[in-house]
Amino acid sequence: MKEVKTIDAVGHVLCHDMTQIIPGVTKDARFRKGHVVTEEDIPVLLSMGKETLFVWEKSEGMLHEDEAADRLRALCQNSGMRASDPKEGKIELKAEFDGLFCVDVERLEAVNSLDELMIATRHGNTPVKAGDKLAGMRVIPLVIEAERLREAETVCGEKPLLELLPYRLKTAGLVTTGNEVAKGLIEDAFTPVIIRKLQRFGIEVTHHCTPGDDMDAITQAVLDYHAAGVDMVLCTGGMSVDPDDRTPGAIKATGCEIVTYGAPVLPGAMFLLGYFDDGMPVMGLPGCVMYAKTTIFDLMLPRIAAGVRVTKRDLKKLGHGGLCLNCENCTWPNCGFGK
Question: Is 332 part of a structural domain of the chain?
């Protein structure tokens, strides 16, 4: 930082805000910290009584905060993301379409471990809408050594830290279990809930049946829907360990690979996920999905809809943050559930 005459300040970077006071009109920063002084600024600064200025002088090997922020933006931005113009050394990324937002957390932490710079994101593996804010990045000082940005670029590698995946799956087969539903003894309250949740991701239920609690019939329905080429199959109800709850066994009997039966999430502990050899997912949904606002199904559906193959490790990691607090006004995914 150094003091220079205002008339000699063109090209220099202001070290602090410059407030302009016009009685009865305004009292606000006319020039912000980090502003690069231009020829046109000189008369204005002089009219504000600023004969000298404290500035950072840009030198070889140093970057202005806006330039540095743009280098950080390049580490993050991927297709489907729109960047803001730099403002006071900060750039933000927003979603251009609805989709699943993903973050490479390990590499993000490695970049953020470097001093004098930062990248902040929303939680990964969450659904976002077009226009939603995804991330913001900036450097801490007004000017920073270019070498520090080269370090960040080396740590990050060539692949962007962030990804926005469109929802790819479009159709579903729904198997609603339970003799009481099949015989019409009670109204099927499960199916409307599933249809509504799927519609949020552009997925249509094209096949539906109510085989009761007949294990062979449930298995055959899943196999039939797989053969019909739907993008996913959902089996609702009959997911506990009671003797007459036969859905887990019926799904296993299809021959699909079972990723997990059980998840460290409440509500939703009795969730089942499997995949056929061609990658088509099969889910067994516990009764809580029918009546709880947000469950394991809501955590998994955005990933599945985007075509992301969920692993057992992915599910086990949900235990930290996997307790829904049943807030009166549910704000998921803008809360800590599942993160």
Answer: no
pTM of the model: 0.85
Give the CA distances from residue 264 to residues 173, 213, 237, 335, 338, in Å, rounded to whole numbers and listed in that order.
26, 26, 19, 18, 10
Residue (of 301, 304, 298) closest to 335 by Cα position: 298
- Mean local confidence (pLDDT), 37-55: 89
CATH number at residue 109: 3.90.1170.30
User: Is there a single domain that holds both residue 290 and residue 205?
Assistant: yes
In a domain, 326, yes or no: no
Cis status, amide bond into 286, omega within 30 of 0: no
Please, what's the largest Cα pairwise distance for the chain? 89
Tell me the CB-side half-sphere exposure of residue 236, using CA atoms within 13 A. Answer: 24
114 and 182 belong to one structural domain:
no
Three-state DSSP class for 292? coil
Taking the C-alpha atoms of residue 132 and residue 224, their distance in angstroms, rounded to an integer, is: 39
pLDDT-derived band at 58 (thresholds 50, 70, 90) equals low
Tens digit of each residue's pLDDT (9 = 90 or more) over 207-218:
999 999 999 999
Cα–Cα distance, 124 to 322 (Å, whole number): 15
Phi first, then psi, for residue 267 (nearest 5°) are -80, 145
Residue with tokens 């460290």: 264
Burial of 150 (0-12, 13-18, 19+ CB in 10 A): exposed
Which residues are registered as beta bridge partners of 36? 13
Plot region of 262 (φ>0 → left; ψ -120 to 50 → alpha; else → beta): left
Q: What is the DSSP letter of 124?
A: S
Q: Which residue type sits at 98? A: D
| CATH code for the domain of 6 | 3.90.105.10
Q: Is 251 exposed, middle or buried (0-12, 13-18, 19+ CB in 10 A)?
A: buried
Q: What does the pLDDT look like over 138-178, one tens digit per residue?
A: 999 888 999 999 999 999 999 999 999 999 999 999 999 98
**39 exposed, middle or buried (CB, 10 Å; 0-12, 13-18, 19+)?**
exposed
